Amino acid sequence: MGNENRIINLLLKLHIALCLLFIFAPIAGSFVFSLNSDRFPSLPLGEFSTEWYRLIWEDPLVWQGFANTVVVGLTVAVIATVLGFGGAYTDFRYNFTGKSFYLALALLPPTIPVVIMGLAMLAFLSRVNLSGTTISVIIAHGVMCSPFAMAIIRLRLSQMDPDLEAASWNMGGNQWQTLRYVIIPFAKPAIFAALFITMAVSFDEFAVAWFVSGLNETLPVKILGFLQGQVSPRINAIGSLAFLSSMTLIILAQLLLRSPEDKK
Amino acid sequence: MEANAQMEQHSEAIVTFDNVVKRFGDFTAVEKAHFEIGRGEFLAIMGSSGCGKTTTLRMLAGLEDPTEGAIYLDGEKVNGKATWDRDTPMVWQSLALFPFLTVQENVEFALKMRGVGKEERRQRAEKWLEKMQITEFANRNINQLSGGQKQRVALARALVTEPKILLLDEPLSALDAHLKVRMQAVLSNLQKDLGITFVYVTHSMSEAFSMADRVVIMSRGQIEQIGTPEEIYREPYNRFVAEFLGSANIFDGVVQGPAGADGWQVAYEGGETILPKSELPDGRQGQKVTFIVSAENMQLSLPDSGQPGIEASVAGEEFIGGTAMVFLETAGGQELKVQKSHDELSLLNLHAGSKVVVHWESGSCHVLPGENK
């Protein structure tokens, strides 16, 4: 095409390649070394080995951390998505004074530095005698994840013709029926995407979990524990698995968020 | 008022608007709407955007509540009654079909909301799909349909509960001209077949006049006139209606005195004419009078023909099918329009700037009652 500048195109491509390299090189490295028999990551590589995977498979501590992560992740996904849907629907449905303030407040948590968030959560949860329990991690992650769910569902609802809701009322559907048969079906792809993304966020979140989890550590907190004790290629193995599970969730969410009208 | 006279024609009303006012904050959307809609009538509410026609319809549907006054539906006062407790289905300008449901599911929706069982839902929906000739699309997705097909789905969906009244909010505005005319015929026939009341909101005069039994003309929240298309066209009530219809020339004159036994001599800027007494029964000398002469009742002559009338020059011409609308300007600056056949115009051999004399039969003058109270 005549209106494209070759040099700019080339620079942009280079830029993308560098971005991808910086993001994925460490992850790829970690993945490669997780399958390497050597104790320390160095070149040339040793033999191919699944030893480190076997070790973490047999480590009860890893399993415990993983179980905590899954329980927390699933619960948080549901709680955050329900809260997020409520916030998004409130925004779609109602106009009231102070609405922008309400929205700012609802979307605030991700902007708070995690250390401050973690400290505040710890201070609060220990007062209500919940600190150091799995529930405390669920509460903290629920607060942190619901804005993501709200943002995703809000975006979907903003694409909805407001007449759809009125049309449902007009055809005999009361407000609950309309919510069930019109609003939720319309927002369904976004609701599932929100479930996956909030689960992924909870999966990866370290700092706040570190403050409030006590003995019920989630996997990222466990990994830090391993790192402090000894440098082991097991970390690479765990990291690779964690990366795979997070990416799966995010990709699923992205697939759902493609406009459903485009799929046809 | 004329609206009251019209009311008595429909002794059995399905809808009564009793001095209904709707305000949004300081803005008055509908001001003292007072009219009835007859059972089985096709009523069009017409006006330009922001005139309050859609608000009127939404109040009837129960989507807005009147600020003052009462609305009666089938004898029952429905102020405050939720839209889901009324049976006033609406066909939306956006159609508002559910994109996540199939055609069949869309049509079944209102029955599902009313707790009708699955099998009965299917049968009743199929009946309407058949009636609207869209059976073959039953399992399609909404966005696989054309504009006309979507229109039919919207109609089937609204009619599936067999309501006594159907509300339509500019349903044809998104269609192209050809399809629009076809859908007008579909709607007209449907309304006659079903015998139910249609309330049809539109900004298009051609839609309103071609389908409706009666037309309500609104502007800035006020009802300007209610009547059959013929009545409104022949006898617009006031200046607004005459201008809105756009096919008449409006003159402001003063009664000079009687002209013969059954006429008044009236002077207006640029000329004099005779108004029939039937148009102005209680006229008197010096009275101000506003009257119209429709564009097709005006005659054109060349200045050298000696015909008395207003002198004007041609400003332009607009082609309207078999006729043309000639736009003229008088010496006093008034704009006039005259509709004539192409044959007649070619004899005059007009071009921009040509001088002509405009005249008309005194019987073709109509006094605007709303301007002469």
UniProtKB/TrEMBL annotation, chain A:
Which PROSITE patterns does the record match to this protein? ABC_TM1
| Transmembrane segment boundaries | 12-35, 61-89, 101-124, 130-153, 190-215, 235-257
Tagged with keyword Nucleotide-binding: no
The record's GO CC annotations read: plasma membrane
Q: Which residues form a coiled coil?
A: none
Q: What is this protein called?
A: ABC transporter permease
* Membrane topology reported for the UniProt record: Multi-pass membrane protein
Which species expresses this protein natively? Answer: Sedimentitalea arenosa
Entry's family note:
Belongs to the binding-protein-dependent transport system permease family. CysTW subfamily.
- A Pfam family matched by this chain, by name? BPD_transp_1
Q: Kindly list the places in or outside the cell where this protein is found, as annotated in its UniProt entry.
A: Cell membrane
Highest rank taxon of the organism? Bacteria
Q: PANTHER family attached here? A: PUTRESCINE TRANSPORT SYSTEM PERMEASE PROTEIN POTI
The biological process GO terms on file are: transmembrane transport
Its keywords, alphabetically, are: Cell membrane, Membrane, Transmembrane, Transmembrane helix, Transport
Q: Which InterPro entries match?
A: Bact_Polyamine_Transport, MetI-like, MetI-like_sf
UniProt domain ABC transmembrane type-1: residue ranges: 66-256
From TrEMBL, chain B:
Domain ABC transporter: from-to ranges: 15-245
Q: What is this protein called?
A: ABC transporter ATP-binding protein
GO CC annotations on file: ATP-binding cassette (ABC) transporter complex
Q: Name one Pfam family in it.
A: TOBE_2
Q: Which family does it belong to?
A: Belongs to the ABC transporter superfamily.
Gene3D superfamilies referenced in this protein's UniProt entry, alphabetically: 2.40.50.100, P-loop containing nucleotide triphosphate hydrolases (3.40.50.300)
Q: What InterPro entries would the database entry show?
A: AAA+_ATPase, ABC_SmlMolc_Importer, ABC_transporter-like_ATP-bd, ABC_transporter-like_CS, Mo/tungstate-bd_C_term_dom, P-loop_NTPase, Transp-assoc_OB_typ2
Q: What keyword terms does UniProt attach to this protein?
A: ATP-binding, Nucleotide-binding, Transport
Molecular function as annotated in GO: ABC-type transporter activity; ATP binding; ATP hydrolysis activity
Q: Which organism is it from?
A: Sedimentitalea arenosa
PANTHER family given in the database record? SPERMIDINE/PUTRESCINE IMPORT ATP-BINDING PROTEIN POTA (PTHR42781), SPERMIDINE_PUTRESCINE IMPORT ATP-BINDING PROTEIN POTA (PTHR42781:SF4)
